[in-house]
Amino acid sequence: MQSNRESALKVAEFLLQIKAVRLSPEKPFTWASGWTSPIYCDNRITLSHPSIRTYIRQQFVEQIQEKFGKPNVIAGVATGGIAQGALVAQEMGLPFVYVRSAGKGHGLGKRIEGELSSGQSVVVIEDLISTGMSSLSAVEALRDAGADVKGLAAIFTYGFDRATESFDNANCRWFALSDYAHLLDKALQSGYIDEVVMESLELWRTAPDNWKKAAHEH
Length: 218
Prior knowledge:
Distance between the termini: 41 Å
Structural class: alpha/beta
CATH architecture: 3-Layer(aba) Sandwich
Number of helices: 8
Number of domains: 1
Helix content: 40-55%
Oligomer: single chain
Strand content: 15-25%
Strand order of the largest sheet: 7-6-5-8-9-10
CATH class: Alpha Beta
């Protein structure tokens, strides 16, 4: 089995290769939150690449079993975690449910789709963690339904301190297959970025809400 660092670099390499992650410090992206960002991440693109999709699924399964043990149920966070979670559940031979971002506006108005019984242990699958708020909202919905949430696993995290704090405050264990630090290491290693760009990109992670100003002052 690969070490977590080896697999994190491999996942980062795949994400860069298929442009699931784009780095553009010269022409930054604007997130819905209003933050100016040199990185854009769409991990759903991995689903279009069978060998990469398989590798991610296998890493999820290995690391879930290593860190959380085998749960009763796998839950995906809508929408990015649904397909990934279903693949993991299939590989582990487990039931699957998914958690909506909000309750349906009709019928029972429920957030959890699928069969989940109170007391069942659950591992949650997410595609991306930024602040962690949407992920933890899903965790809260599962706990409200009586689930014993063992933890959450994501493909990628930006590594913001506020996300780590939020998961700690919610008493929810978690991990990501790869993260911003491994991504930058791989991007530098492969010549995708140089040292000067690397410095600017590292600065963004520490001050994402004020990056342009911080980069200029730096």
